[in-house]
Amino acid sequence: MISKSALADLPSPAPRSADPDALAAEIIERLTYSIGKDAKVAKPHDWLTATILVIRDRVIDRWMESTRQTYDTGGKRVYYLSLEFLIGRLTRDAVSNLGMLDEVRAALGSLGVDFDAVTSLEPDAALGNGGLGRLAACFMESMATVDVPAFGYGIRYVHGLFRQQMSDGWQVELPETWLANGNAWEFQRRESAYEIGFGGSVDGIGANPAETQRCVWKPQERMVAVAYDTPVVGWRAKRVNTLRLWTAQPIDPILLDAFNAGDHIGALRESNKAEALARVLYPADQTPAGQELRLRQEYFFSSASLQDILRRHLQEYGDLRSLPDKVAIQLNDTHPAISVAELMRLLIDIHRFGFDAAWEITRKTFSYTNHTLLPEALESWPVPLFERLLPRHMQLVYAINAKILRNARLERGFDEDQIRSVSLIDEGGDRRVRMGNLAFVGSHSINGVSALHTDLMKQTVFSDLHGLYPDRINNKTNGITPRRWLMQCNPGLFSLIRDAIGDEFMDNTEALSALDAFAGDSEFCARFAAVKRDNKVRLANLVARRMGIKLDPSAMFDIQIKRIHEYKRQLLNIIEAIALYDQIRSHPERDWVPRVKFLAGKAAPSYHNAKYIIKLANDVARVINNDPAVRGLLKIAFLPNYNVSLAEIMVPAADLSEQISTAGMEASGTGNMKFALNGALTIGTLDGANVEIQEHVGKDNIIIFGMTAEEVAERRENGHEPRPIIEASRELSQALTAIASGVFSPDDRDRYAGLVAGLYDHDWFMVAADFEAYADAQRRVDALWVDEEAWYSRTILNTSRMGWFSSDRTIRQYAKEIWKAGP
């Protein structure tokens, strides 16, 4: 091992030039000697790879410098554990953050290559599902930007989340082959490989039966986790951090005896088991096999990450007792919650700490971010499954639980109901291990992601744990990186803002507030509107190419893009579109506002109602888009295969942002922030971060409707009866009758009978209850739209007042108040 002093004396490579001519020469050199292509016959993907390799060299210089600095100063590192990192395309992000966008564009231009065309070929990394994964990606970029030394840990999914296609309006899941042609941004680290076990037996060491007893776990199955590193570049390349993703490899790739005996399939069973772990994000878990694979994935990446963290700490400091002083581990939702039990196992069984000492280190090292109040998302695992796969961890969960429950009963006087609530084991029905509770008790900090969500955590899912540990829950409202979600995805607006207020907002997004002075400026409003129209033309052209639907960019672009889920209420949006369709046909004499409703998002493969909502959207679109009586005043487009790159086109084009979740069910949202930053008005409920967005942009610059979280809870508690509400609303009842009777599904008139019946029977997500308020709010939007200058004045104020919602601000709060890391 090289000493710190020797490391400091090693020579550094000469800085690489940012001159366009030098860049062009390097690109040709890489094209020739790394890819083996003559420039005369090179294809666009060859130019992309050559460009990445040249840019990567400059990133590596800063990456190594950042690593040396942290190693030399002994700074505290943050480790962000997340099952998702929805990073999207990396090339433009890296070039922009290096401050070399103009130079690289010029270099490629001198070679006859278009930068935008080439970088558009880069595949989206299929490592996330939606907001959770995109937040993790924004946080990684912001940690580098604000100079917090950090590693992100996750899984290098071969296919990740599925690629969504439409077949007659139905969602079809296909493998997303983002790694088919390799990934020029990543580096395999063969030396960072760790053994991961499952199943087997546990033997005690010594005769002491106490909970502090060390044990030897003898797994029945073993595999190896191997690291792949991707550099994450901060703004102005102040720091480059590391995203380390794990892939699984078998210890014995092939059982030769079985192969030679003719069992060719059985000979590969160990290899197949290992490969399955890193194959797909969120395998369908409606079957026992799917649940087992999901738990295996979570333990696999958690164990590999913790082994890596401890190895690095011991290499630098030699003593794990200082772990909380030098290491902060953030659990991004419950997926890595098994890390609490795994760190205890490593400390007790491998590094010989007593139980109490190990628990003290564990609790001080971990912090946990909760992203949901939905019970099904607060993961729990059947005890038999957990015990069979992770027998030593089951022992430790029971030991931790005993400690917690003794404290709750003896020191805090908890009654039986409270004991049942805080227990790590759910005894109601089949016994299950509660991962949310495990993450809570094993962390010194538990944060929500919006002010409302944090308050509801204290009142609902963690009310008794909050009573047991009243100082642990805190709020850290989410944010987004303005580099990706303004500077890169909306260059027209970025240039307009820069011309108006200068460059300060590029380093401090709250300086966007200077735009307030331009909200009443007619000339600036016109230029703002022109930028919006250009973005709408770009989206309209994309829809025409992909879907054959012709759209008018002068129409209002009304966009809802997010995971398809009943609580996000895409169904409410579709039903209101049907009611509007009926009104347009019934009252052709009125001056209707032309509107295009866009929807995009993926439904979990086993979530049948969500899939029916996608099909309904496509069925309704087919009818409305082809009805001449509508006169083109209303069109609907469901765009397939929603991902980061598609969002980067849709967000800047939005006039209206749909944030209409059932109040009290959306933890925060980040799409709401992206749309508002890019000059869209929000129509939404007082849910998640909408509450804080309203506080920042002002009540006149957001359209709020519907019940509050308290009103939703009260109505559910008192027995919500949706049928009288539906029957009292002419527009709602007619729309539901049309859906249920097969107006939009003539090939199967009963297709949506069950979906509609759910609204009449229980309406858990308050679609019927909020319909009239939503429809009224949409007509308020129409009234605002007709006054163009007033509309754009409001949208400018949205952009100017969204600076607080930067992920830089969020990360600074995490670093100061939870991690105690960074400058």
Key features?
alpha/beta, 823 residues, Rossmann fold, nine-stranded mixed beta sheet, six-stranded parallel beta sheet
The coarse overall form would be globular
Mean pLDDT: 94
What is Rg? 27 Å
Describe the main β-sheet briefly.
9 strands, mixed
Helix content: 40-55%
Q: Can you list the strand order of the major beta sheet?
A: 5-8-9-2-1-10-11-15-16
CATH fold node name of the largest domain = Rossmann fold
Protein topology:
Layout: H1 4-9, H2 20-33, H3 44-73, E1 77-81, H4 91-97, H5 101-110, H6 115-119, H7 131-145, E2 150-155, E3 163-167, E4 170-174, E5 187-198, E6 201-204, E7 215-218, E8 221-233, E9 240-250, H8 256-260, H9 269-277, H10 288-317, H11 323-326, E10 327-332, H12 338-350, H13 355-365, E11 366-369, E12 380-382, H14 383-389, H15 391-411, H16 416-422, E13 425-426, E14 432-434, H17 435-441, E15 445-448, H18 451-459, H19 463-468, E16 473-475, H20 482-488, H21 491-501, H22 522-547, E17 556-561, H23 570-586, E18 595-600, H24 608-625, E19 634-639, H25 644-653, E20 656-659, H26 671-677, E21 681-684, H27 690-697, E22 703-704, H28 709-718, H29 722-728, H30 730-741, H31 753-761, H32 767-785, H33 788-800, H34 807-819
Parallel strand pairs: 1-2, 1-10, 2-9, 10-11, 11-15, 15-16, 17-18, 17-20, 18-19, 20-21, 21-22
Antiparallel strand pairs: 3-4, 5-8, 6-7, 8-9, 12-14, 13-14
